[in-house]
Design brief:
alpha/beta; 2 domains; three-stranded parallel β-sheet; globular
Length: 449
Amino acid sequence: MILNVAHVTHEAVVKMGGIGTVLEGLITAEDYAEAVDRTILICPLFTTEGDVDSRLGAQGDVLYSSIDGRTSDPHAHAFREIEHRFHVRIVYGRRFLRDPLTGREARPEAALIDVGHMNHHEVNGFKCRLYDHFGIDSQRHENSWDYEQYVRLAEPALAVLRALGFNTGEQRCVVIGHEFMGMPTALCAKSHPEWNIGTAYHAHEVPTSRKIVEEHPGHDTMFYNVIAKGAEQGLFLPDLFGDQSGYYRHVLAEASRHLDVTLAVGDYVKRELELLSPAMDRDKIKLVYNGIPANEIPPAEAGISKKKLQTYAEALLGDRPDYVFTHVTRMSSSKGLWRDVRVMRHVESAFRKSGKTAVLFVLSTEIGGPRRREDILHMERHTNWPVAHREGLPDLSGGEALFYQEVQSFNARSRQCKIVYINQFGFDRLTCGLRMPEDMEFPRYPIGQ
């Protein structure tokens, strides 16, 4: 039996967070390559801007694009029929993936589908099946484009898989829905048992839990204590926090019980999935950790890295700190940046007694790519970026400004510790300005070294 895998994800082309990194490592892994014959990444087409050769990322190879008139691919006739039926446009080709830690490369297929003007008759027909087969009432959620676009993606995505021969003859296809975004496509495949397509939900988190944690002032400290006590009494998340059926991500995550298997990336994720509702099938939820290469950093190299960060801190603040802390993350309340500030308040109190000093570097941004070098140099020269910031682009976006308010408040009251907030992709002189040491970089350690 030949195994083909379709990954449905919002990070099919652009790596926005953890899923892109997971896919990069997974698809380039030797064991994966031995087990899987063909891989395709499927995603809505988020923008038609740019030229044809940029649509599938760096070193991507676009074989078909009805948007750009590139239609000589052997599958062009089948793609045109799909486009005519669903009123969509298709970009198809190959992505280039390279794991920066191992150096292994892969070129999976990729399909981006423009669903902005999709045939409403086809969409409504699928929404009817979602209700009949899985009890999902799309009328409650279709005002959210986040929900709507992934529901629209489902049927043309499966049509593309079938046109490409992903589940013909001895070839078995498995559709893996990453997070809630991939669930409609996986459910669509499940509603067509005659296609014999396997289905899986790859749960990188539990959206219901995330929403509760982000919105409650007690955050995760409250959440995990409450669900632990609740579980002892046989209670589920809706029992503890109220009806969640109005939240489309919860509805889609709970519908994962209809699929063949759910892959939970950690112990907490597995536990939270089991508590989504009494209907969840615990036997279908499998613990599958996200694996990343772990490399031992020699103490001498760690010392060199610390000295570089101390030198950078001295260039920015005028003093060389005894300790350096770092946090590299996405700009999201669930990442606990608010907690970093609270921890630093305790460190400040302790260091006032000991006389020690420290700097926390926070590297996080919510915009979709690196700020231009000329903007960084201008802000560095005229507004003392990244020590000081101003609201509005090219500097602070809305969410970044909210976090910086906490940083400002802390720095105004502290003597021994400071927080430097760097709202930029990258960590070198090219992306972060001239006060950064010339040899600063994110090191990549090959396996075994």
